[in-house]
Amino acid sequence: MMTKSRKTANLRRTANRLLWLSLLLCGFMLPAWAQPSVGAALSQSEILIGDQVTLTITASYSPPVEVKSIGFEVLNQEPKLEVISARRFEKEGENGLRIAEVEIKLTSFDSGYYLIPPIPITYEQNGQQATIRTNGLALSVNTIPVSPDAKQIQPIKGIIEEPVNFRDVLPYLIGAVLLFALVGGLLFYFLRRKRPEPPPPPPRKVLAHILALEQLEALGQQKLWQQGQVKRYHSELTHILRAYLERRYGIKAMERTTEEILRELEQAGMEATYRSQLQQLLRTVDLVKFAKAEPPPTFHAEAMEKVSGFVEQTKDEALEVELPPDNGFK
Question: Are residues 225 and 122 in the same domain?
């Protein structure tokens, strides 16, 4: 009986020890079960210089675990590997499983065998952070294979010419059209442009009495009174005389009466003899212009001579005037 009881006690102690051992093992394994499942993979293990390869980092986890960061910055430790781009994705799996994934584009311009270090992944569980790492990888970067014939000097090949088409000559056609249009426009502008009129000749300066005598000579050559135009003849004769008085003495003689002209000439300093002679000339001509009877032919020639004589007697050798376009004779 004692032997049987002792065996029973031993069995109970052994069962208790196994139970506590199981609970202890479960306590140690719970954190391991809650860790994220991580991994890294290359789209290909060999590339040529300058080609790109995709490195995919995956972390699968379930709440309350939360992945904080995926530290792919460790790739910068290898200076001959260049990170072109990196994108992170989050997606849902089955039974509440979450998957964090990062796709990284890598390239290299130096041939060699490169080890991609394990990528650290930081996660948080129940307010505590921990880090787990992916597996390491290897990437082989190869140079472009060169054929044995590439080192041999090859003969010079002829130029392969393409047939000429419309698109090849189109720029030249457009340039020619624009050039002809420009030349035509310039020719049209210069041919149709109105040429500026030549400037008028500068006015000729002449002595006041010479101008009056030239006008009297031109009046005589018209032979107005010989053609029966007596009043016109004496009107032109009076006009020449009055214009001469304006230039010679600086008075307004065209629109003045004979008495007003004489008063202004007296103030201008004309001698009494010349004023008396001028008074007789002006009154005689006025009588002819307004008279109904026609005087004898000798009267007209004498009037011309008296006006010419008056101009010669009162001339000023230093007084010059600009010769008008119509020579001062209307």
Answer: no
Name the strand (E) or helix (H) holding 260.
helix 258-268
Q: Has residue 230 been placed in a domain?
A: yes
Domain of 62, CATH number, reads 2.60.40.10
Q: CA angle 313-317-318, nearest 5°?
A: 140
Q: Which of 38-42, 116-120, 248-252 has the lowest mean pLDDT?
A: 248-252
Average pLDDT over residues 141-153: 71
Tell me which of 102, 125, 142 is where a domain ends.
142
Residues 38 and 134 both lie in one domain: yes
- pLDDT for the residue 107: 92
Same domain, 214 and 300: yes
Burial class (CB in 10 A: 0-12, 13-18, 19+), 311: buried
In a domain, 330, yes or no: no
- The string of pLDDT tens digits covering residues 193-227 is 766 777 777 777 888 888 888 888 998 898 888 88
Number of domains in the chain: 2
**CB under 8 Å to 173, separation ≥6 — which residues?**
none
Q: Which of 105, 125, 142 is at the close of a domain?
A: 142
DSSP 157: P
Domain region containing 233 = 205-322
DSSP string, 43-96: S-SEEETT-EEEEEEEEEE-TT-EEEEE-GGGGGGSTTSEEEEEEEEEEE-GGG
Question: Hey, is 28 helix, strand or coil?
Answer: helix
Per residue in 20-56, pLDDT (tens digit) is 444 344 444 444 446 788 888 999 999 999 899 999 9
| Of 142, 86, 153, the residue nearest 111 (C-alpha) | 142
Q: Cα–Cα distances in Å, from 247 out to 110, 140, 208, 243, 253?
A: 107, 115, 6, 6, 10
CA angle (190 as vertex; 188, 194 as ends), nearest 5: 105
CA distance 210 to 214: 6
Q: What is the DSSP letter of 163?
A: P
The answer on 136 and 55 residing in a single domain is yes
